[in-house]
Amino acid sequence: MSSDRMRVAINLLTDDPDHPSGAHWFWTRVIPQMAARLEEGEELHLMVSPRSRKAHGGYGSGVRQITFPWSNERQRLRVLSEQLYAPPRLRAARIDVFYTLIAPMVRPAPGVVAHFKTMHAFTAPAAIPPLVRAYRRTTYPHTAKVADAIIINSESLRAEVLRFLDVDPGKLRLIPEAVDHDTFRPGDPEEARARIERYGVDRPFVLFVSSLWPYKNCDGLLRAFALARPHLDGHQLAVVGPGRDAEYVSRLHALADDLGVAEDVVWVGGVRLEETVFFYRAASAFAYPSFNETFGLPILEAMACGCPVVTSDRSAMEETAGGAAVLADPEDPASLAAALVRACGPDGARLRPAGLARAAEFSWARTGAQTLAVYREVHRARERVPA
Predict the structure, then answer these.
(1) Is the terminal CB of the chain with fewer CB neighbours within 10 Å at N or C?
(2) pLDDT tens digits, residue range 288-328?
(3) What percentage of the chain exceeds 90 in pLDDT?
């Protein structure tokens, strides 16, 4: 690697500083790993807003900030600034490579790296507001066309990108996500149980961790729990995650009543990501019966804490689990119920060490190094293009 200058702009504007998402967690882990590997003349320029900039400091001398007016707390204004302000602003900053989820219509830098995290605008359209869905369906094809490289996180997502977009397969770069092993690690189950009693979880329990969108299939899990309950020795079902779809959440509560399991379901609500560790450590099993995922990071987080996992036998979930989970048909409550009974009972002793070994294969150091390598690859390729 030469010491020629390379300035990379990383678009962090899609996160809401008031409600940090998984994207915030991702970048606060990946940026330090890339910063530690920067060579002479290489710089990372983080696109932040006045409200989000304080969340992205202390990365080192090779990491700087470019301030934009808005991030995702003002979604429409953020989109306008990305489309209209980013091209002249990044050219003025002499950016060489631009990383983004969606590329502006005007190219803002010589090199463009896109990162497709989901194809939910096509695979789970009901989970996305109509205007956002329309915007993504319009801009994803353009992004796929102009990007020099496209980062994906699973083979399942590769198949979806190739299915829904006209894209050169040679542009796709597979970089899995990872687990923060300093946070998600085994611990004392008794201590964890004492920690979560304040949420109303006071018996052995099956755990569900996710935002409550219909495609996450919490309703299917409720039906499976009702079938499995006679075989689970007084277990509760702890549902951890914010209710993103109010109508769906209302239906879930009504379904629990109809199934006669309401007294055994604990609706914990949203908690800090670090707090989920105690739920994973204390749970008899973690259930992740989603209909569609492009990676399924909670699978690995549960495994890293020593929790047996039940997940779906489709999309990226089987790929991420890597043989260390009990797989089930998310459309068949009986299949899910049988998997829950196995994970909470005879298969638990096998799943715990298998899950720990599987989670250990994924690290943010590797993800950061591979992401930086893609930036360098695109920069070198663009340097060779005649002016």
Answers:
(1) C
(2) 999 999 999 999 999 999 999 999 999 899 999 999 999 99
(3) 89
Query: Which of 274, 379, 279, 384 shows the shortest CA–CA distance to 1?
Result: 379
β-bridge mates for residue 6, sequence order: 42
Count of other CB atoms within 10 angstroms of residue 216: 26
The CATH superfamily label for domain 6-178+364-383 reads Glycogen Phosphorylase B; (3.40.50.2000)
Residue 148 CB contacts under 8 Å (≥ 6 apart), including other chains: 111, 112, 113, 171, 378, 381, 382
Q: Report pLDDT for 385.
A: 62
Q: Are 339 and 312 in contact (CB under 8 A)?
A: no
For residue 83, the 8-state DSSP code is I
Predicted model pTM = 0.90
Distances (CA, A) of 48 to 136, 152, 253: 21, 23, 39
Domain at 189-359: CATH code: 3.40.50.2000
Statement: residue 1 has pLDDT above 80: no
Q: Are 216 and 248 in contact (CB under 8 A)?
A: no
* pLDDT tens column, 198-215: 999 999 999 999 999 899
Angle between helices 333-344 and 348-359 (to 10 degrees): 90
